[in-house]
Design goal:
The structure holds two protein chains of two kinds. By secondary structure, chain A is mostly helical. Chain A contains eight helices and no strands. Chain A has a domain at 21-167: MetI-like (MetI-like fold). The longest helix of chain A is centred in the N-terminal third of the chain and has 37 residues, at 3-39. Helices cover 36% and strands 26% of the residues of chain B. In chain B, the strands form two sheets. A six-stranded mixed β-sheet of chain B has the order 7-8-9-3-10-11, with helices on both faces. In chain B, strands 2-1-4-5-6 form a five-stranded antiparallel β-sheet. The longest helix of chain B is centred in the last third of the chain and has 16 residues, at 180-195. The radius of gyration of chain B is 18 Å and the shape is globular. Classes of the chains: A mainly alpha, B alpha/beta. Chains A and B meet through helix 5 and helix 6 of A and strand 7 and helix 3 of B. The complex binds adenosine-5'-triphosphate (ATP) and magnesium ion (MG). Magnesium ion is lined by residues 41-42, 172-173 of chain B.
Chain lengths: 216, 252
């Protein structure tokens, strides 16, 4: 296999890795908000169920969760899982990351000064205005460093998709290295992850800077 | 009559905080509330502004009943959808300002009139600039709260409350979080408002200020109104032993 072929093959894997990354963030950042609302709900049963769910997801390996999401429908309901590989990966990643984000959101919201809610209430803001205009922007600023940590972890976690034999960068590197008895694919994969993280860190830093015009 | 609170009862769990408190405030009146820490002053203001729910009694604003307690039952509040209008009647200035840190000074003042009262942004801005000018903060319109001193923050908070054109303004120890040299600038603003016949209820530990600025002084102790009257009477010749003791602690 020539270097060009190798790079082309791995390039396709990189795109798949980026796909997992982007879809996971696009799904889990909003879903985390929904889960957080469930967790903080005044409805006791709902909040207990959500709390238990979060602790299961955070207490078990993502790798295992991926296997459960993929094979679960077959073993539990006898459904065909043909063509279900990629959706299972995305569901597994989105749900897992959403639970981590939910807890980060919750921490951020609970750290907010009660006076901010009270001031908004006195001024006549509605509950949703208070949340989206007053509370959320401040919460985002305080939790951004924790979000950055998760996002950087996600870049590396995408490699767990190899569990379901998905042809992303890491799986391909392993395969090609074995079949070609070459070390190069690992170097290529390493460079890819490093550069991806660098880009992510840069973007997150820019976002943090864009919110540094005030301090609380 | 702008505010009429009658026979207010309030308790937290099993701790009784307000007993049979009645507070009526007429248009243009300035009422000061004094009393030791824990006597229920903040709770009274929080009940008046609906941050806390009462456990008994009634609250009316401008003749409209907002909460009342039927004989032998729990208090009833008007439905939430009617609360919006009532909230326009009053403003509250907090001890620790509670400005929105992510909004500039101007936006802190303009945002609620525009978003809540749906007023025209151009007109609101003009009025906000007039208010900031009056507060001596015209040059701080574009600053953020973290760039201001405590006294400046409190003046922004007052402008923010005034921008909604309330009929009555409550102050909960507006100078207690300030360094002594900054209290003067805030008290001066409140004095100015009193001169303009702004209706105000002020919880304060600044006795000289209360005496000078108010039409009526209320002394609270242990959740009761112990004494109430003309400031010269209450400060100069208190009728109740407890008032005398309290004032003696201030070296009056
Ligand atoms: N949310 C609450 N839960 C339980 N108890 C409360 C709560 N808020 C106030 N209290 C109690 O109610 C009593 C009156 O408190 P309040 O804050 O009204 O006093 P205050 O006169 O404003 O005192 P200060 O001068 O210190 O501000 C206190 O004993 C306080 O512990
Ligand atoms: Mg108080």
């Amino acid at each position: 296999m020539s270097l060009t072929t190798m790079l082309t093959t791995m390039g396709a894997g990189m795109l798949r890795t980026i796909g997992i990354f982007v879809l996971t963030l696009a799904g889990s950042l909003p879903l985390g908000m929904v889960i957080m609302f469930g967790r903080k709900s005044k409805h006791k049963i709902l909040s207990t169920v959500v709390k238990a769910f979060i602790s299961i997801i955070r207490g078990t390996p993502l790798m295992l969760q991926l296997l459960v999401w993929y094979f679960g429908p077959y073993y539990l309901f006898g459904w065909s899982i043909k063509g279900y590989r990629f959706p299972a990966i995305i569901i597994g990643f989105v749900v897992n990351y959403a639970c981590y984000f939910a807890e980060i959101y919750r921490g951020g919201i609970e750290s907010m000064d009660r006076g901010q809610y009270e001031a908004a209430e006195i001024l006549g803001y509605s509950r949703s205005q208070t949340f989206f205009l007053i509370i959320l922007p401040q919460v985002i600023k305080t939790i951004l460093p924790s979000i950055t940590n998760e996002v950087i972890t996600l870049v590396k976690d995408t490699s767990l998709a190899f569990t379901l034999a998905y042809q992303e960068v890491f799986s391909l590197a392993k395969q090609i290295s074995a079949s070609e008895t070459s070390f190069t694919p690992f170097v290529v994969a390493g460079i890819f992850y490093f550069v991806a993280n660098y880009v992510v860190a840069y973007i997150m830093d820019r976002i943090e800077k864009s919110m540094s015009f005030y301090t609380t | 009559m702008i505010l009429e609170m009658k026979n207010i009862e309030k308790h937290f769990e099993d701790c009784e905080v307000l007993h049979d408190i009645s507070l009526c405030v007429d248009s243009g009146e300035v009422v000061s509330i004094i009393g030791r820490s824990g006597s229920g002053k903040s709770t009274l203001l929080r009940c008046a502004t609906f941050l806390e729910k009462i456990d008994g009694g009634s609250i009316c604003y401008k003749g409209e009943t907002v909460a009342h307690t039927p004989e032998g039952e729990r208090p009833v509040y008007i439905p939430k959808k009617d609360m919006g209008k009532v909230k326009n009647y009053f403003g509250l200035v907090f001890q620790n300002f509670n400005l929105f840190p992510h909004y500039s000074v101007l936006k802190n003042v303009c945002d609620a009139p525009v978003r809540v009262q749906k007023r025209d942004i151009g007109e609101v801005r003009e009025e906000a600039m007039r208010l900031l000018d009056k507060m001596g903060l015209a040059d701080k319109a574009d600053a953020y709260p973290f760039q201001l001193s405590g006294g400046q923050k409190q003046r922004v908070a007052i402008a923010r409350a005034l921008a909604l054109n309330p009929d009555i303004l409550f102050f909960d120890e507006p100078t207690s979080a300030l360094d002594p040299e900054l209290t003067g600038e805030v008290l001066k603003i409140i004095r100015q408002l009193a001169k303009e016949k702004m209706t105000m209820v002020i919880v304060t530990h600044e006795m000289n200020f209360a005496r000078a600025v108010s039409n009526r002084v209320i002394f609270m102790d242990g959740g009761y109104i112990v004494e109430e009257g003309d400031p010269e009477e209450v400060f100069g010749n208190p009728k109740q032993e407890r008032t005398r003791q309290f004032l003696a602690g201030y070296g009056e």
